[in-house]
Design brief:
Shape: globular
Strand content: 15-25%
Strand order of the largest sheet: 7-6-5-8-9
CATH architecture of the largest domain: 2-Layer Sandwich
Number of domains: 3
Largest sheet: 5 strands, mixed
Radius of gyration: 26 Å
Order of helices and strands: HEHHEEEHEEEHHHEHHEHEHEEEHEHEHE
CATH class of the largest domain: Alpha Beta
Length: about 375
């Protein structure tokens, strides 16, 4: 899994690194017919040579690609002295299955991933025990020590004990007042216990930078637990799912269950975003570029497969029109939108939002690029 530590290392170690550096993004998915017989090795070589990568670096990277990857994409950063590889279980928007750049660190495809995929916390509330997972970039990890302060015996008593069990057949005539007192004690104790667990989850959410939550379990237990969550976490709950038959379910089973609901939820969110753009945003390449460079956008909406180019003047101004760019100073150079837009967004403090599927089709009809103004 691409952890936060990896992301920090990429940002803090690679970004400040003096050029030149090779940035290679490669489709290695064994399920794709065009990757048979490791055909991606030839694509990688051709792409690296096409951007002027030194032969020594090319050889080092090809050596690192010799193993058969159990991944969909492989990301490589390399210099003559260093090499770092990251295997990803998600697709990247790569043209012809590869993208290479020699020079300054090129992180645009990685930015796509960091924007598109939130870190999702999954809390599995079973009568036997509490479990929590992190889902990110198509992978899942069980955080085994997340609820280490929770006594398993206490949790089982909470979820399995009840006045009905305590006063079974043959004791039905026990005093009703005794039953009521027991129920009130259990309610107060349950409240305190769930609140303590919720506080632990909040701490975990901050430590792991979880943006969404999915709760799995019996309806009654999940409902009580959700109400005990702090407001910030309660608002991050995007789905409540029925419990799996087996409390010892494998992480892969949990991942399959969660991924079935996350895709449609993301599509709905992107659809609402495009509704907002249509209502009060700006759209079209030239107008959006102008608003962006005037510092008037807080959100820039881009298609998942961003194509096309623009013109950049000597003073840095970018325009879709050659004459407009020349008015800002010559010489003018042609730049790929997929490379220049993340740089512009970072320069003006604008957040990126990539959309795909139906939302991407709607964005194309709006002119291929859009944004939401700060005011």
């Amino acid at each position: 899994m691409l952890t936060q530590a990896h992301v920090r290392r990429i940002r803090e170690h690679l970004l400040p690194k003096a050029a030149p550096l090779l940035s290679l993004y490669l489709d290695v998915n064994p399920a794709h017919p065009n990757n048979r017989n490791r055909a991606y090795l030839l694509r990688a070589r051709e792409a690296m040579e096409a951007v002027g990568t030194p032969p020594g670096v090319v050889r080092r990277v090809l050596d690192a690609l010799q193993d058969v990857p159990q991944a969909r994409c492989r990301v490589v950063f390399a210099t003559p002295e260093e090499l770092e590889c990251y295997d990803l279980q998600v697709e990247l928007p790569l043209f012809e299955g590869v993208e290479a750049h020699w020079g300054e660190p090129y992180l645009t495809p990685l930015l796509y991933l960091l924007d598109e995929y939130d870190r999702v916390g999954v809390v599995f509330l079973d009568s036997e025990r509490l479990r929590v997972f992190e889902v990110y970039l198509g992978e899942i990890e069980e955080l085994t020590g997340a609820f280490r302060a929770v006594d398993p015996q206490v949790w089982r008593r909470l979820t399995q004990d009840s006045p009905g069990r305590r006063y079974g057949p043959g004791r039905a005539h026990r005093a009703a007042a005794d039953t009521d007192r027991f129920a009130r004690r259990m309610e107060a104790w349950t409240h305190r216990f769930y609140k303590a667990v919720a506080e632990q989850l909040e701490q975990l959410s901050l430590e792991r930078n979880l943006q969404r939550l999915v709760l799995i379990g019996q309806r009654a237990e999940v409902s009580v637990f959700k109400e005990m969550l702090p407001r910030r976490l309660r608002e991050q709950v995007v789905a409540v799912l029925p419990s799996l038959p087996n409390a010892q379910a494998q992480a892969s089973e949990v991942l399959k269950l969660v991924e079935e609901v996350l895709g449609p939820i993301e599509h709905e969110r992107e659809a609402r975003l495009l509704d907002e753009v249509a209502e009060r945003g700006v759209a079209g390449l030239e107008q959006t570029l102008e608003f962006l460079q005037q510092g008037r956008l807080y959100l820039l909406v881009l298609p998942w497969r961003l194509e096309g180019s623009a013109y950049q003047a000597t003073d840095g101004w970018v325009s879709s029109c050659l004459e407009s760019a020349r008015a800002h100073g010559e010489p003018v150079r042609e730049v790929a939108l997929r490379r220049i837009l993340p740089e512009l967004a970072a320069a003006y403090g604008t957040r990126l939002e990539f959309v795909r599927g139906p939302a991407e089709e709607r964005l194309e009809k709006l002119g291929g690029l859009a944004g939401l103004p700060r005011w």
